[in-house]
Amino acid sequence: MQVNLNKTLPAMGKFHVIFLRNVMIYFDAETKRQVVARLVEQLLPGGYFIVGHSESLNGLTDTLRAIKPTIYQLP
Ligand SMILES: C[S@@+](CC[C@H](N)C(=O)[O-])C[C@H]1O[C@@H](n2cnc3c(N)ncnc32)[C@H](O)[C@@H]1O
Predict the structure, then answer these.
(1) CB of residue 39 inside a 6 A radius of ligand 1
(2) Can you say how many angstroms the Cα of residue 64 is from the centroid of all Cα atoms in its chain?
(3) What's the pLDDT tens digit per position in 30-57?
(4) How far apart are CA 8 and CA 34, in angstroms?
(5) Closest ligand 1 atom to the C-alpha of 5?
(6) Chain CA centroid to CA 25, Å
(7) Please, which contacts does 62-68 make with residues 24 or more away whose CB atoms are closer than 8 Å?
(8) What is the mean predicted confidence (pLDDT) over 2-27?
(9) Rounded distance, CA 29 to CA 64, Å?
(10) What percent of the chain has pLDDT over 70?
(11) Ligand 1 pocket, residue 54 CB under 6 Å
């Protein structure tokens, strides 16, 4: 399924892992916050959210905890 991350996401179920690698480069800060918030809603508790090696979620979400550089987890 292809989705536009800038819009309300369709019903996709929830995920153990979400990779958002090298995608946020296209978005301004507010759009990044909205995209991350939308995707965090799709994570199962304990699920992992992984970004690209040059990216970080610092300042974009308080919901995820940083595990290692580029790897975050929903408590
Ligand atoms: C640099 S590529 C990275 C591809 C892959 N994630 C990787 O790391 O190799 C950026 C990707 O972001 C996707 N993208 C950009 N804006 C998007 C949006 N609003 N919704 C969904 N995907 C988007 C593009 O289609 C492209 O596949």
Answers:
(1) no
(2) 9
(3) 999 999 999 999 999 999 999 999 999 9
(4) 10
(5) 20
(6) 13
(7) 63/37, 64/40
(8) 96
(9) 17
(10) 100
(11) no
Rounded to the nearest integer, the mean pLDDT of the chain is 97
Domain ranges of the chain: 17-73
Tell me the C-alpha distance between 35 and 25, whole Å. Answer: 12
pTM of structure = 0.95
Q: How many Cα atoms sit within 13 Å of 5 on the Cβ side?
A: 20
Q: Tell me, what's the pLDDT at 10?
A: 96
List, in order, residues 6 or more apart from 62 with CB less than 8 Å away. none
Q: Does 9 contact ligand 1 (Cβ within 6 A)? A: no
Distance, in Å, from the CA atom of 38 to the CA atom of 22, rounded to the nearest integer, reads: 17
Q: Phi first, then psi: what are they for 36, rounded to 5°?
A: -65, -45
- What is the mean predicted confidence (pLDDT) over 5-24? 97
